[in-house]
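User: Run a structure prediction on this.
Assistant: Running it now.
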Amino acid sequence: MEMLIYIILSLLLAIAPLAVRTERAVHIFAGLFFGVQVVAVTLLLCFGRMDSLMLYIFKADTLAVVFHILMTAVLGFTLIHSSSYLKAENVSIASYKAYYTILMLLALAISCVYYSDNVAMTWVFLEATTICSAGIIYHREFKHSLEATWKYIFVCSTGIAMAYLGILLLSTVAHHGALDYASLREVIAEGNTLYLKVAFLLIVVGYSCKMEIFPLYTVGVDANYAAPAPASAFISTALVNAGFVSIYRIYSVYAAAGDVFVWARHLMILIGILSLAVGAMFLRRTNNYKRFLSYSTVENMGIVAIGMGIGGVALWAAVFHVMCHTLVKSSMFYQVGIMRHIYDSYSINRIGNYMNINRVGAIGFILGTLVLLAFPPSPLFVSEVMIFSEIISVGSWWLLAIMLILMCVVIYSIWRRSLRLGYQINQDEVHLSAVNRRLSYSAAVLLIVAIVAGVWQPDFLRDAIDVIINID
């Protein structure tokens, strides 16, 4: 009943802006929608029945609640930055309303992915995120936006179709047609080994378009490039997290599959290495700050996939890495959105002198770069050291060597480009009236929270991750 009320309220508030005539009214409904998210997670934390089944297909377990909290935090900043972004773009009121409606519908679909306790319904809600994301990607209505939208729809639909085939194979082990994750985990050891391996491969490859890992990572990069920067922050974090949660739930089912699980972990390591290699290669070549941040997401999710494949302490670190990446990457996308209106460009080779133009934004971006590159006290430093230590403990020195080489390339590429923004000679026109230090400060809030998490992980956070990874 609680989930039904949440879905109905969120849905009504999401579509309500279509019926109003002013931006202020749109902001009111957006604020109410955000309020519903805050109330929902608060009630679940304080009074909710954790792990209880809702509407037969939803479960408010720790994994879902934690990622819903992260999504809500990013959503609040996205709504604020979106208002400034859209006003600077001077969009029509119809476009303004459509953007907020689609963004809120996307948030609702993502939250349903988090709470879904049914492998088939997870698939349904992920497909819903494709439809909503496509609307946001096309919002700017440029040639590149149209191309990116169709590519996103086609590739994501293909990936989701592959995942569906995997779900069909996985369902062969289901007793009495039960497709909830707990039931599948109880009987998965009885399944045909070949079917289970092919199912896992199809599901992970299919969902890779959402988690932005190899092989279908390209649609995420194009989507982030074409969408408005605040929406890119949401897609590159909340939606990527939806992909991670979907894959992680399948991963937790396979933990009871014996030898098949060993194979699945090796597959995750391979996908992680390839994702890390792709990120390292394209970070050296890209000349656009939004693509630059998108390939960084591919690289970071590759590290997460490797952590999942290694298991043990590395699995704990992988979950922690995803959480902190959400805060860091969204902050940097907000800073890039502010930068866009100052320079009217994302070109790495042309824009510069940002330290003198918007010192707050420049410091925020450079500091974000340091945190993204896992320099202490970055929380990503904590997670990566934990992953490295687990790799050493299992004796996979070859894997450690590959990761270190690729990460050196990543560090060089990212740091070199970040310094260009602050100090190289600017070659484009500058719009000083677009400098908004308040927005730059607000974007830095999430970054500061991430840095605090790198220095101090409170007991409730550690306990939550312990519960999430308790899949033995």
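The chain is about 75% helix and 0% strand.
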